[in-house]
Amino acid sequence: MNFIDKLERKFPRFGITHLMKYVICINVAGAVLGILDASGVFGTSLYASYLSLDYYQIFHGQVWRLVTWLLYPVYSFSGSSMFMNLIWFAIWAFLYFQLGTSLERTWGRFRFNLFYIGGVIFVMLSTLVFYLINCFMNGGLSSEISAWFGWYIGLSATLDYLNQTLFLAFALMYPDARFLLYFVIPVKAKWLAWLYLAILGYQLVRCIIYGAYFGVALIVGALLNFLIFFVFGRGKPGVGARFEQRKRAQEFRRRARPYENTTGQTAGRHRCAICGRTELDAPQLEFRYCSKCKGNYEYCSDHLFSHQHVSN
Questions:
Q1: What are phi and psi of 275, to 5 degrees?
Q2: Cβ–Cβ under 8 Å, residues 127 and 53
Q3: How far is CA 248 from CA 84, 234, 252, 254, 271, in A?
Q4: Which of 84, 85, 101, 217 is 20 to 30 A from 27 (CA-CA)?
């Protein structure tokens, strides 16, 4: 039993049912906020002033930002591109709602909540580490530099990469699922996942080359959650399984293979432990395992009730 299995047994009621529905509602609220900010209703950006993940302001008492930053507007709703951005936002919301709902049905409420909420925490921790390192390298938490870094992180911290790891998780669970690229070209999820990983790797290298380390922090935070969940938590059956489980599976497959004779030809799947006959030698025979014998001993119908039980 892995660590996540133990957590699930200890906290079986943990989690929010239909979590993705609430995530999409939060993003819709963020989109409305983006429209209001772009139209200048509040005179200034309400999100940047009071809601963003600004650690400088959080350390100075505005602790609600630890939650309200989730309202980050996912698109820029200003200018002539507003209508198209609304369309893309609707497509994005529908797609990720379907992905999240499918994963929750597959994993169950506990595991899906742990994956998504854990991803949110990892993003927050990675950005916090980035903020603290930059502050202490530039004079401490009380300097003007730390206030600038807090403002910068607050405007840039998003869950974009975490939401994209939902697609990676879906592709790992359902690699042959098909998506219509540009609504026309059918492509399997596994190929889109490889393409996304290539793009993500390019973005990571580009961030490192140009010194955009905050982008590195966001990417690493989201991917670290994904790797821990699948490698150590066995999000997909067989991924990260213990050695004993893999060994038993290999032994089962070995025993399920047809027997072979000395010439290498298939000699049947069933073999009587007494007479050695198989279903190919006598098609009328039936073969059963004896529940009283210690071990996996199979007998034909002629010897099933007449054999001596194996006790060691």
A1: -95, -15
A2: yes
A3: 54, 17, 6, 10, 21
A4: 217
Measured between alpha carbons, how far is 150 from 128 in angstroms, rounded to an integer? 10
CA dist 41 and 63 (Å) reads: 25
Q: Name the residue with tokens 């997909």.
A: 236
pTM, 2 dp: 0.68
Per-position DSSP letters for 93-160, written without gaps between them: HHHHHHHHHHHHHHH-HHHHHHHHHHHHHHHHHHHHHHHHHHHHHTT-TTSHHHHHHHHHHHHH--SH
Report how far residue 262's alpha carbon sits from residue 253's, in angstroms, rounded to the nearest whole number: 21
The residue whose two tokens read 């073999």 is 271
The 8-class DSSP code of residue 240 comes to T
Q: pLDDT tens digit string along 29-88?
A: 888 888 887 777 766 778 888 888 888 888 888 899 999 888 887 655 555 577 777 888
The neighbouring-strand residues paired with 271 are 278
- Least Cα distance to 100 among 168, 34, 4 occurs for 168
Assigned token pair, 253: 């497959």
Is the backbone of residue 120 left (phi > 0), alpha (psi -120 to 50) or beta?
A: alpha
User: Is there a contact between 253 and 246 (Cβ–Cβ < 8 Å)?
Assistant: no
Q: How many CA atoms lie within 13 Å of 188's alpha carbon, on the beta-carbon side?
A: 8
Q: In whole angstroms, what is the distance from residue 123 CA to residue 218 CA?
A: 6
Q: What is the mean pLDDT of residues 265-276?
A: 74
